[in-house]
Amino acid sequence: MSIEFTAPIQACTDPRHTGALREQLGCNGPDPAEQASAPASAPETPGRFVRGFRLIQRNGDALDCAQFPNGRVVVMDDPDWGLCSGARSLELLLRSGYHGARAEFADEQPTTSEAHVIAERDCLAMAVMFALQWKPDAPMSLRDGIEEILATMPARPEPTTKASEASGE
User: Fold this and answer.
1) pLDDT 10s digits, 100-131
2) In whole angstroms, how far apart are CA 70 and each of 13, 52, 63, 94?
3) Is the pLDDT of residue 138 over 70?
4) Percent of the chain residues past pLDDT 70, beyond the cut
5) What is the DSSP letter of 139?
6) What's the pLDDT score for residue 13?
7) What's the CA gap between 43 and 113, in Å, rounded?
8) Residues 6 or more apart from 75 whose CB is under 8 A from it?
9) Averaged over 72-95, what is the pLDDT?
10) Which DSSP string corresponds to 65-120?
């Protein structure tokens, strides 16, 4: 009986590992010397800072990531142990180890205002506290009390998308 074990390809992107040295070290993935010099996904510009994003895996888990001005990316695989992965570009990272994952950049997503989020959280906390302290002999029913509290919750603002802004809606 033979057991076959296939490890996922974690591409070696060290430009010093080429040819025979690459074979001796057992490097996986495409050889940097054989690949055409791909332009970085984000060209380096002076005054630009690291851009944070989330890598959403196929199973729904989100990993914190950073993209540097030269296009390189770092993914925090296991924050408890400080394990990270990196690649020369987001495209290479997705090809070599995170198949089916998608990147969500904060500046490309519709967001709600921080004040709205705080107000919603406080309202829900108040409803939970009411439910925990409610007694059967209380003058107000549990349902009526929670409905009254939730009626004070601010309405969620409609997220705006680039398509609706372009159409003038």
Assistant:
1) 888 888 777 655 566 677 778 788 888 888 88
2) 15, 14, 21, 17
3) yes
4) 66
5) S
6) 67
7) 31
8) 55, 63, 64, 65, 84, 85, 86, 93, 98
9) 89
10) EEE-TTS-EEEEEETTTTEEEEESSHHHHHHHT-TT-EEEEGGGS----HHHHHHH
Q: What is the pTM of this model?
A: 0.41
Is a pLDDT exceeding 60 seen at residue 20? Answer: yes
Q: Tell me the residue type at 162.
A: K
* Interacting residues of 36 by C-beta distance below 8 A, sequence separation 6+: none
Q: Count Cβ neighbours within 10 Å for each residue of 12-42 and write b for 16 or more, e otherwise.
A: bbeeebeeeebeeeebebebbeeeeeeebbb
Q: Which two tokens stand for residue 51?
A: 């851009």
The encoded tokens of residue 74 equal: 């770092």
Which element (helix H / strand E) includes 132?
helix 114-133
- The whole-angstrom separation of Cα 99 and Cα 89 is 14
Tokens found for residue 86:
């990196």
Of the candidates 64, 38, 37, 63, the one whose C-alpha atom is nearest the C-alpha of residue 51 is 64
